[in-house]
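TICKET: design request
STATUS: open
ATTACHED STRUCTURE:
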């Protein structure tokens, strides 16, 4: 795994070793800090959570990401990477400061930028002239003007550098990106900033801050639209008795379309797509632009989740009230332990609201207090959750689910019915065992 993500084909270039501050050690901040130190820079990452900082200084990542533990420990040993409890002011002496702070969706659908603005206020009176402050957080389009007004410094430069990391492959994505986007008002500032990425071979787009922010939102909105289209196409296949696997194979071979993100599911989610699509729609409305296609993409995803709930209810063979549902997978996708915006939880919450009892298993979730509010009984074994179940539903595409002993599961369930919301199981094998199998768009 390490060979896949480390830049071990190069020697660390200490002649281009910049002093970097990173504010926030979440998914983006931790990956950024670790990978920049791997590129040879001196990085101090600060966070307000003492427990998180303590674990990171011990070399224990606080998120599940392939390759991250190895890089974290290696760069802690070199001394290029440090973690410290503190606020934005803690890194005021750095040459380049990244803001990697949460911008959750507000009640109006906008991104809540309160933590980003507070960090800028802290830095405004403390940083040295010539410092570059980089916004890595996803902020509303046009936020640069707000940030400049708060900063009120002509000798400090603001840069937008949106992230395009996928959870579950963020280290690889950072070190081998499709592109690097820089939004700056000065080519000189952009060139200074891009010294950080000299060892990465990728296309570079230098543009203005507003365009950089729009690239981020536009990319996520287009991904969401693609996923919604695939899910709607799968529903059509169910109606006309076509096979979605064959249909997508035929479509994906068109070089104008390609095979990426061609998998139906219970709906799209995660920490970015739901928040960013709604924020872009809200921004469009505030600007007086009608964006009906984006609104329909969001509505289509809600309808897909409802569709999955109805399919599970029918597969249970009885009204949902009183039914026992066994669920495989809780995270929004495989390869991560992140539950934010998980369509799996959306589906299960709606089943519970209809009176179902839900037991679930996920390889990354054993004791998570945040699940208590969902009234889901989380088991430590995929087989024990199936005992007496009326239906088994696969909600996350963890590969280990496809190699379970379904002959054993058949004997445990009261009603051997499976809803495969990720199409990762073999329908013929399960039907031969005696299961009633329901996939997405499979005839």
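STATUS: resolved
RESOLUTION: sequence designed for all positions
ATTACHED SEQUENCE:
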């Amino acid at each position: 795994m390490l060979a896949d993500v480390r830049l071990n084909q190069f020697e660390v270039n200490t002649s281009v070793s910049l002093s970097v501050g990173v504010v926030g050690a979440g998914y983006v901040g931790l990956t950024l800090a670790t990978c920049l130190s791997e590129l040879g820079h001196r990085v101090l990452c600060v966070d307000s959570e003492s427990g998180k900082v303590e674990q990171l200084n011990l070399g224990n990542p606080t998120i599940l990401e392939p390759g991250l533990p190895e890089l974290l420990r290696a760069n802690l040993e070199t001394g290029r990477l440090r973690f410290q409890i503190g606020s934005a002011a803690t890194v005021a002496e750095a040459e380049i400061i990244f803001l990697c702070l949460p911008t959750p969706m507000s009640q109006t659908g906008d991104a809540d930028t309160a933590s980003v603005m507070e960090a800028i206020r802290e830095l405004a009176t403390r940083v040295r002239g010539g410092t570059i402050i980089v916004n890595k957080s996803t902020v509303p389009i046009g936020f640069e003007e707000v940030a400049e007004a708060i900063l009120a410094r002509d000798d400090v430069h603001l840069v937008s550098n949106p992230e395009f990391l996928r959870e579950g492959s963020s280290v690889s994505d950072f070190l081998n990106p499709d592109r690097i986007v820089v939004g700056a008002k000065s080519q000189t500032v952009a060139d200074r900033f891009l010294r950080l990425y000299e060892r990465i071979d990728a296309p570079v787009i230098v543009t203005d801050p507003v365009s950089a922010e729009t690239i981020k939102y536009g990319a996520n909105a287009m991904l969401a639209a693609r996923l919604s289209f695939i899910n709607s196409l799968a529903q059509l296949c169910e109606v006309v008795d076509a096979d979605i696997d064959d249909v997508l194979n035929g479509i994906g071979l068109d070089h104008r379309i390609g095979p990426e993100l061609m998998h139906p599911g219970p709906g799209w989610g995660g920490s970015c797509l739901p928040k960013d699509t709604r924020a872009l729609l809200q921004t469009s409305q505030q600007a007086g632009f009608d964006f009906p296609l984006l609104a329909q993409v969001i509505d289509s995803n809600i309808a897909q989740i409802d569709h999955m709930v109805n399919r599970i209810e029918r597969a249970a063979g009885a009204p949902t009230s009183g039914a026992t549902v066994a669920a495989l997978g809780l995270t929004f996708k495989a390869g991560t332990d992140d539950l934010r915006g998980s369509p799996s939880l959306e589906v299960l919450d709606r089943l519970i609201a209809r009176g179902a009892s839900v037991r679930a298993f996920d390889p990354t979730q054993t004791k998570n207090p945040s699940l208590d509010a969902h009234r889901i009984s989380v088991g430590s074994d995929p087989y024990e959750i199936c005992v007496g179940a009326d239906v088994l539903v696969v909600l996350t595409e963890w590969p280990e689910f496809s190699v379970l002993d379904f002959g054993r599961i058949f004997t445990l369930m009261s009603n051997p019915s499976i809803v495969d919301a990720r199409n990762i199981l073999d329908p013929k094998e399960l039907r031969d065992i005696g299961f009633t199998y329901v996939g997405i768009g499979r005839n």
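CLOSING REMARK: Confidence is low (pLDDT under 50) at residues 1-12. The chain has two domains: 2-207, 273-438.
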